[in-house]
Amino acid sequence: MITLEAALAAAATLIALAFACSTLERWLARRRRHELAWTLSLTFFAVASAALWLGATRGWEAPTFRVFFLFGAILNVPWLAMGSVYLLWGPQRGDPIAVILAVLSGFAAGVMVVAPLVGPILPDALPQGKEVFGVLPRVLAAVASGIGAVVVIALALVSAWRVRRGRSRSKAAAGPIARPGRLALGNLLIVAGTLVLAASGTLNARLGEMTAFAVTLVVGVAILFCGFLVATSATAPARSPRSAQDAPEDLAAHALG
User: Fold this and answer.
1) What does the alpha-carbon distance between residue 6 and residue 92 come to, in Å, rounded to a whole number?
2) In the chain, what are the domains?
3) Looking at residue 71, what DSSP letter applies?
4) Tens-place pLDDT, residues 179-220
């Protein structure tokens, strides 16, 4: 019998995977690093959702929960934040941060492979990290999700402040011209999606753990993807001087700052 949790987890998996394919296609066409970072983040969401789907359908086991915890509690939000870093700061600042994040992601993956279990995993209930893992995996999850969310929110506020000051512009390597209002709106939607995903703890008390995670994954990933589309559409390839004469408002936005 298909349960509500399994159906929601399946929907979250398919939505996240479809969105990851979309951002991957955009990255392949334009080679803009923020779209690659978002592709990784959405792929991690899809993997975590698939683990939730498997756990809700076949029962929880140690390997399934390790995958769920790694991709759903540790890796996804930091790479989501990496996309915001690239979008607003460009590759010159973003590349060194991405290298550090990749190394830390590999370290976290190694920890989750070898971390001993300190408690039993019941097949019919979503395990909690504090009941299953020791200190290090839980610290990694808290630090990764906490810092990642702070970065996403802080950079969204920076974007909004730049718009208000009339100085917002994208710094991507291709030198696109920024549309400040869309850039700010896209970042605010990304913040909203991040907060929805972080609200699973509150929803647990009302909906149950697996249902809460499935609901927040579906809604949160959908909002995130809308934010990605809006933020990405805030930039357009730089025009030649002749064509730029036909779009003075874009030149003005590009020159601000």
Assistant:
1) 43
2) 4-238+249-255 (1.20.1070.10)
3) I
4) 666 777 777 888 888 888 766 655 544 455 677 777 787 888
